[in-house]
Amino acid sequence: MPRFRLRPVVAVSLTAPVLLAALAVAGTAAATVDGSARVDGPARVDGPARVDGSTGAIGTARVDGPAGRLVPVPAASPPLGDEYFTSAQLARGLLTRSDLPEGYTFAGETATSQTGSEIFGSSLCTGGPPTTIWGSITTASRIFRHTDGSMITVDIKATGADQARQTIGDVAAAPAKCPVVTQGGFTTRYTRLPLPALGQTSAGLITVTRSGNQAPAREHAVAVAYGNASAVFREEGAAAKNQARFIKIIKAGVKALKKINDPTPVAELKRGLIGVTDLPKGYRMVTDGTVASGTAGSGTVSNGTVGNGTAGNSTAGSGTDWFAEYDCTGKLQRFDPRGTAVQRSFAVGNSEATIRMAVGSLGSPGIVDAIRKRLSDCPAITDKSGVRRTAAEQQVPATDISVVGIRYPGTPAVARAVILYRDWYTDIRVTVTPGTSAEKIDEIMSAAMTRIFDVNS
Q1: pLDDT mean over 254-265
Q2: Would you say the pTM of this structure is higher than 0.85?
């Protein structure tokens, strides 16, 4: 079930005429599909509907908690592209200066949610303005200039897989469908830009525009579909002699796209952890480190231990069995994050840690469903070692962020919340010691939700 209601892409093609030379087009259409056969034909571009590396909408329905302190939440559903990738994720897939040949310098970049985003290639044959997506989508772009006067622009947009493939089809079709377009004194000729096997569905275009006695303006462009993202690489002020250089840049650019799905770096994840200043007075930090990949469900904590290093035992809910929950057969199900997660724990005075928190890149949203199933179908189970375990619902603050609460009775009891937002998830547990009121638990969980929202907004 998606976190937020999915909204359709609303694409509108405007018809007001503009000078063709002002359009960001580029021209020869050779389509390569998943590194296999090239499709040199016009409109048809073969290839699978899904490209590995895509990220779909994930999460679960809203869970309301008790009245009281409210957590800051989005005023409405996040931008359309956030159902696929955040702008920060898209920015990871951009070319860097080290990916380029000598002579290029960085000239600017953006990573944002954009309303009224124009779709490259949608008006090559009409001469009108490009089709526009009027809903807000996430985008990332970067520009580089060369000493010879040319300019490389990389634009990545979370348009969804259907629109990404449509862009490939439009670019691939132009040389056959409208090889020459004349409008407003400008004549533009489209020809196919031959491409090597790139491993993703793609199409290349060379555009040459002339006006009167002026020197022709040449552009190279390649559109690439990467799952739910559409990437367009353009070289303005291009020259035929530099075509091979541009193709090398494209190869590097397609390779960089794979970084979109890289796990969030540890330094960035740490921004999602609460600190002492987020908690009621009297708490101190006990541990501050990482949870090694593949051990998130086994209680292993490494790196940066503070104080006595105690982070609890390895039973789900009462210690550091991060991102795990028992099923109805008594088996501990693990939903490890991608890459390394980060953790932090806190205590009051000289006592052992009573607040434990971990943040990681979302591996599987199944942890929320697993907890809900445990609560609804089997609140009392016997685990594989013969230990009887019980659970009950834990009220959590009201929020539009996906969250589920579970409470493990015992002496002492443990209150737990698992929070999903975009491609992050947080696992926080509060040991219920004397003096730990429901209001204090609510305040601590609210702080965790606020932090994960703030660092992703």
Answers
A1: 87
A2: no
